[in-house]
């Protein structure tokens, strides 16, 4: 079934003693807004998390392998980066492209190979803004030694340096545009895979620099009226410190409650325009008021 009406997505996850999104132009340090002290995470990072998860769970492009569901367009091949020209050899035309690649149906894609029949620009129905932590974060600089020396005769092991943050609760806001969904043939099955990738993909970030991620709250609001959405939903949530904790000293999800009174108020105001509310909540997160499914 194709997407008919607009949806909004709120996704909250925390990052503890890790680097949520290193900046390659700044020694791979966490992206921190200088004015607010809050951690920033690009939508590209979130989309990569989703793509990687889907690739590992059936969208691997190998029709002979088990659990085959399709493919991912923006990905490496055999562990190596490839050009758009090479990837273009894996589809015949735009219709084939759309039917093959779930990430193209979700996020859109640009194809610009030499073959002009395969040149197109597909706008993605699913768009996320920049992720940002609710709290001011503390950046840490860590020095350590590597496992090996530079040569067999050397006695001093190599050194490593890295940056991370102590703790941040990061929020993303997304919109599913039903008008763009028509052109990418986005289905409800695709959206189910998207939500799975958001939640379990984030939970599965277990590399050395990313271990410490945990999904906490995922809310999807489906509207009954075309072209309508509330907007500014993250701005209607805030953190209430618990047990005398200060914002800049948060270390874990138990240090605060998420104040949901304002977002519940706006959801109630527009209840007649809302067809469905889906809520996935981690059992350790504290909300001042529950966000109820509908």
The major beta sheet can be summarized as:
8 strands, antiparallel
The portion of residues assigned to helices is 10-25%
Number of strands: 14
Compute the gyration radius: what is it?
21 Å
What is the helix/strand order?
Answer: EEEEHHHHEEEEEEHHEEEHE
Query: What form results from the Cα inertia axes?
Result: globular
Task: Give the class from helix and strand content and strand pairing.
Answer: alpha+beta
Low-confidence stretches: none
Number of helices: 7
Query: Mean pLDDT across all residues, rounded?
Result: 92
**What's the end-to-end separation, in Å?**
20 Å
As a percent range, the share of strand residues is 25-35%
Structural summary, described in words:
With 294 residues, the protein is α+β, with helices and mostly antiparallel strands. Helices cover 21% and strands 32% of the residues. The chain contains seven helices and 14 strands. The chain has helices at 43-56, 84-87, 94-100, 102-107, 178-184, 188-203, 261-269, and strands spanning 7-18, 22-23, 29-30, 38-41, 108-111, 120-123, 126-128, 131-136, 139-149, 157-176, 213-223, 238-241, 256-259, 274-281. The strands form four sheets. Strands 1, 4, 7, 8, 9, 10, 11 and 14 form an eight-stranded antiparallel beta sheet that branches. It has a two-stranded antiparallel sheet with strand order 2-3. A hairpin with a 5-residue loop joins β2 (22-23) and β3. α1 packs across α6 (188-203). The radius of gyration is 21 Å and the shape is globular. The two termini are 20 Å apart.
């Amino acid at each position: 079934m194709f997407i008919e009406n607009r949806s909004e997505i709120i996704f909250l996850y925390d990052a503890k003693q890790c680097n949520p999104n290193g900046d390659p132009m700044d020694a791979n340090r966490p992206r921190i807004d200088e004015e607010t002290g809050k951690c920033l995470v690009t939508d590209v990072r979130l989309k990569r998390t989703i793509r990687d998860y889907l690739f590992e769970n059936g969208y691997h492009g190998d029709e002979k392998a088990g659990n085959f569901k399709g493919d991912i367009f923006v990905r490496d091949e055999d562990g190596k980066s490839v050009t758009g020209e090479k990837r273009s050899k894996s589809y015949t035309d735009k219709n084939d492209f759309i039917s093959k690649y779930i990430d193209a149906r979700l996020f859109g894609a640009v194809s610009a190979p030499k073959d002009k029949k395969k040149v197109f620009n597909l706008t993605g129905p699913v768009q996320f803004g920049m992720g940002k932590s609710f709290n001011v974060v503390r950046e840490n600089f860590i020095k350590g030694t590597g496992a090996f020396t530079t040569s067999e005769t050397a006695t001093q092991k190599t050194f490593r340096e890295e940056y991370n943050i102590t703790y941040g609760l990061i929020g993303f806001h997304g919109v599913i545009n039903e008008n763009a969904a028509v052109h990418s043939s986005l289905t409800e099955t695709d959206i189910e895979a998207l939500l799975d990738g958001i939640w379990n993909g984030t939970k599965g970030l277990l590399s050395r620099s990313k271990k410490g991620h945990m999904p906490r709250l995922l809310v999807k609001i489906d509207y009954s009226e075309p072209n309508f959405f509330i907007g500014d939903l993250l701005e209607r949530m805030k953190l209430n410190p618990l047990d005398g904790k200060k914002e800049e000293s948060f270390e874990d999800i138990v240090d605060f409650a998420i104040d949901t009174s304002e977002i519940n108020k706006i959801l109630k105001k527009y209840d007649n325009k809302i067809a469905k509310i889906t809520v996935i909540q981690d059992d350790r997160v504290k909300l001042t008021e529950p966000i109820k499914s509908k």
